[in-house]
Amino acid sequence: MTQLINISEIKSLYPDEWVLLGNPNMDESKLDVISGIPLYHSKDKKEVCYIGRDKTSNFDKITLIYTGTFRPTRKITGIFNRITKK
């Protein structure tokens, strides 16, 4: 695939995966990706970083995005319990 795809299409094609994008177009704040060329995708971030590295030589800019939502890996309630038990 060598054409720009918008972010909503990327999220529907690769749900809950890490996607390496070539020549990403960013919004005005330079924080959010609007579109890009998918180079490699996988559920494993390390796999995308290592295998995808060979696919980036023809691109000026690259970025890595996650198309799912981040879930907290552990609860951070200990400090709140100590503060409220005074």
Could you list some keywords that capture this structure?
single chain, 86 residues, alpha+beta, four-stranded antiparallel β-sheet, globular
Explain what this protein looks like in three dimensions.
- This protein is of the alpha+beta class.
- The protein has one domain (5-84).
- The protein has 3 helices and 4 strands.
- The mean pLDDT is 87.
Number of helices: 3
**What gyration radius follows from the Cα positions, in whole Å?**
17 Å
Provide the helix percentage: 25-40%
Report on the biggest sheet.
Answer: 4 strands, antiparallel
Low-pLDDT residue intervals, each spanning 5 or more residues: none
Instruction: Strand order, main sheet: write it out.
Output: 1-3-2-4
Order of helices and strands: EHEEHEH
What structural class do the secondary elements suggest? alpha+beta
Distance from first to last alpha carbon: 59 Å
Q: How many domain units?
A: 1
Rounded mean pLDDT is 87
SS elements, strand count? 4
What proportion of the residues form beta strands (DSSP E)?
Answer: 25-35%
Shape type: globular
Give the topology, please.
Layout: E1 5-6, H1 7-13, E2 18-26, E3 33-42, H2 45-52, E4 62-66, H3 78-84
Antiparallel strand pairs: 1-3, 2-3, 2-4
Short description:
The chain is α+β, with helices and mostly antiparallel strands and 86 residues long. It has helices spanning 7-13, 45-52, 78-84; strands at residues 5-6, 18-26, 33-42, 62-66.
